[in-house]
Amino acid sequence: MKLSHIALSIGLIFTSGLAHAEPLELNLSGGNPGGLWSLLGAGMDRAAKKSDASSVITYQATGGGLANIGLLSKQKADIAIVHNAEIKIATAGEKPFKTPVTNMRGIGYIYNWAPMHFFLSKSIADKYGIVSLDDLAKAKVALRIGVNRAGNITNNVALFMLEQVGITEKSVKANGGVIVRAGANDQAGLLQDGRIDVVTNGVFVLHSSFRAIDEKTDVILLSIPEKVIAATNEKFGTQTFTIPGGSYSKQPKEINTSALGALLVTRKGMKEEVIYDLTKALIDNIDEVRAVHKSMAKLNLELLASQRVLPFHPGAERAFREAGLIK
User: Any idea what the Cα angle at residue 183 is, between residues 178 and 188, rounded to 5°?
Assistant: First the structure.
């Protein structure tokens, strides 16, 4: 073989060994435009671009995690943000799903610190000696209970937690009360205007809607029985979370509750190399995601790799194993 041919062969081998991965071109289904999930989408896009400047992760606003599961199933999304509780509902084939959803694969946890809160008007709490969710059921008083809108997973979780102590829509109505469905910010306004007595939601401690409730209305934060927390975690894949004492003005002691988490997920058919490259970009550039909002300060690689709600996508699993984050 001529020397020039040998050199050419070596050059081809060397070049192929250094072949660069294709830039990522993914669409990400999130939630409302301008919300935290849209910020997380921007952070993921920056993380991908830091690994390859040509990569693009395009965020698409949707109705939230339940809608995103449907979009993944229909191959209208490559990756999506979904609550752990929504995954549990989907894989069990519970409403709004007609059959179990089996095509989702996990990439990683993004956060797991969105605890369920139950605020009660202090005047009612004082009058009936209510300090816990159990007490709320035993009082059998006419209550106007605010839960999130139908279709929002915190609606499902709140109603389930209330049911564990015997509070159902039927029992509320029998006592002369009503269940009111409204968004987080609307609930704060309804409480301030005296149109509801209880606010329930599952978002970060000291979320703006919670701060508004604490600052503008006289409320207490109800404690949650351990049996309710255990049942909720079993049902929805949530985690026990401690709201530190003093988080709110009339909450001197810590309160345990169940906390929702959000995961980055994909569909079964996505190419292994694509999800591997995405996961590696997130591992290498996690600061880009962490920097999107102060509430994300606790995000770290250990949390990212800790999801066990779904089977890992093979690409994500390989990236985590290479990084020594899973065995």
Answer: 80
